[in-house]
UniProtKB/TrEMBL annotation, chains A, B:
GO terms for molecular function: DNA binding. Residues 1-62 form the HTH asnC-type domain. Keywords: DNA-binding, Transcription, Transcription regulation. This is DNA-binding Lrp family transcriptional regulator. SMART domains: HTH_ASNC. PANTHER family: LEUCINE-RESPONSIVE REGULATORY PROTEIN, POSSIBLE TRANSCRIPTIONAL REGULATORY PROTEIN (PROBABLY LRP_ASNC-FAMILY). It comes from the Bacteria. The keyword Lyase does not apply.
Amino acid sequence: MDELDSAIVRELQRDARQSNRDIARKVGVAPSTSLERIRLLRERGVIRGYHADIAPSALNRGVQALVSVQVRPLSRGVIDAFKAFAAQLPEVLSVFVMAGSDDFVIHVSAQDNEHLHAFLVDRLSQRKEIVGFRTSIIFQHLAKHDPAPLPAP
Amino acid sequence: MDELDSAIVRELQRDARQSNRDIARKVGVAPSTSLERIRLLRERGVIRGYHADIAPSALNRGVQALVSVQVRPLSRGVIDAFKAFAAQLPEVLSVFVMAGSDDFVIHVSAQDNEHLHAFLVDRLSQRKEIVGFRTSIIFQHLAKHDPAPLPAP
DNA sequence: TGCTGAGCCGAACGTTGTTCGGCAGTCAGC
DNA sequence: GCTGACTGCCGAACAACGTTCGGCTCAGCA
């Protein structure tokens, strides 16, 4: 991860669909060089993929929420099973496994409040390992798609 | 947003860096057609961008947390100002503006626990409008990068 | 000094992006 | 039913691009 790698990563975070030649020009190397760097970054697992960012409303996901979930017993089996269950639900956007008073925080979205409610009471609360959950509606979500590298510790 | 648009969006969510010809072949149209569709999807704001997914550790972000924040007074000015402040901090990955007992949930990451703590007490808690916040460490974060469209309501 | 390896470059060639003219299907108005 | 306008798709053409590979430079080391 030298300065060149960082510059390439920054460009791909900003716009993953620009041409390799554009990237090479912006970071100041030959296209063959940046191509090889990108190949190595993927191989080393630094770059995990490239994804289009889609407006939620276009996917019929007008309402979003964070759901804090407590499960019992707190064993690996229960945690892994619940994690896999949650991740596979279509309404779930992302699953956080947490330390602290909540065991999971789940970022979900649905067509509207009615569907969200139905999802919570029909799907989520079915699970026997859940001993409690708390849902908070998201008014607005600002996501940074190009987090900068922090200085080395 | 017909079936063709959905198929194209799905492909770009899965891999935003594949060639337009590949996408066209997979969804069963001519490359010129899929190119035009993609152009329109961007123009309509359905596709908001393309971003590389980078391993957090490669950005020196070994520890992540969710911070629930309460601010007062709950006026638009205070909310907008705090939102802008939070979004601009390098440690912040994303900002949720919430309904319910917490006003914000902030997804942050830092090099290690020490830096995280320093960030919380030196940067975040400086803000006068904050009347309380609660930090929960994230053990694991599973993100779905290709949420499927939900059935129309 | 000479050797070795790593990293970058530039040329070359097959592949792709992008534009544009044309064609088929649809629909409104008559 | 006919006409005309419109929309969306296709395929060809050319410029631009991706990808490979041989060779060059330079640092490190003995």
